[in-house]
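Quiz preparation item.
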């Protein structure tokens, strides 16, 4: 696989999302969790989406339960948390794994294309991958990097 656009992933509602549909857009892929100390980052992610969606930004949240069982719910519970608590309107995928043998191929690709510090593993919830209009990862951000700290990189990617 040579770009984000080579992948498909199911939405939280179980419908196939062909990431090729986002060709020419800047995409921020984030592994998320509903019961994490970082969960309030949904607010910042939504603020970025509100500000830049009409300029070509797509945010894709991918719920994951691999870190301290912080996404234990089913699709309905995840959707309720995202919508009711944070007003999320950007696409959310089905619950997936981001590390190990069961890692979704999208995350296997992102981790290889945008290596981490010490290891390529996703270290915690809310690791973020910024992908350029060409479908290739530009940068990986740590879980503690607040969404608003990505603004300059997002603007640069949108103008590229």
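Solution:
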């Amino acid at each position: 696989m040579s770009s984000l656009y080579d992948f498909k992933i199911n939405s939280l509602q179980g419908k196939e999302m062909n990431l090729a549909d986002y060709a020419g857009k800047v995409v921020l892929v984030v592994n998320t969790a509903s019961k994490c100390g970082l969960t309030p980052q949904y607010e910042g992610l939504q603020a970025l989406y509100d500000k830049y969606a009409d300029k070509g930004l797509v945010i894709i949240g991918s719920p994951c339960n691999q870190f301290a069982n912080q996404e234990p719910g089913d699709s309905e519970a995840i959707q309720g948390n995202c919508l009711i608590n944070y007003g999320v309107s950007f696409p959310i995928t089905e619950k997936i794994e981001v590390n190990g043998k069961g890692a979704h191929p999208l995350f296997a690709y992102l981790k290889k294309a945008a290596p981490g510090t010490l290891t390529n593993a996703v270290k915690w919830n809310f690791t973020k991958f910024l992908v350029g209009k060409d479908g290739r990862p530009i940068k990986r951000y740590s879980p503690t990097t607040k969404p608003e700290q990505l603004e300059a990189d997002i603007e640069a990617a949108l103008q590229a």
